[in-house]
Design a protein that fits this description.
By secondary structure, this protein is an all-alpha fold. The protein is built from 9 helices and no strands.
Length: 228
Amino acid sequence: MFKAFWSSQEQEAQSRPQEISTDSWYPQSVNSSRPTTPSSSSSSSFTQRPGDRPQSLSHVSPAEAAGIVVFLKDKSVDELRKLLSDKDAYHQFLLSLDMVKTQNRVRDELRNETLQLTRENLEKEPRIMELRNQCRIIRTSELAAAQEKANELERQKGEILKFYSPASLLQRLQEAMNKTDEESETLHRQLLDGEISLPTFVQKYKRLRNTYHKRALTHLAAKTSLTA
């Protein structure tokens, strides 16, 4: 970003009849924009194309430009020429800037943090492999037993839900009613055959019919509530 200002710094010194070296390490686009003295007019042209300067400054913000001027304003023309022609001198000057030092420091910190995280991850690799082996053992042995037990519990759950479902309860209540009714009929035949006495028949028959009608009323109420 500093290359954009070399031409403006050179223009301040264009009144001095000194020749600038044409073997600068900068690209031809930068060298062609620098002013020349009369003695060097045969090798380079002073004319600057209209599009060169705006294009070179298009990526430099005012704040960056002000910061560059602060570092360059106290340098002599010879020092500026050396920065243009000497690549090592330019790099040393670039590395001496505070903003470049900050960028390099941040880069080094990020690199060191990345290396530290990498080392920590590598140190954890044996533990990760151990945990993977444990998971494999659990999956092949303990998990199989636990899965079998879970299936058995699920089967028992299904049987319990089926046993206490409304339809199952109604069916069992109906079966109990039928059984009580059959017992009543059997008791009646025993009375007719003289196998039991009348007082015994009345006592047992009354109890059976009472149970039957309770179950019948419960069955009717439950069936009505389900269909409502």
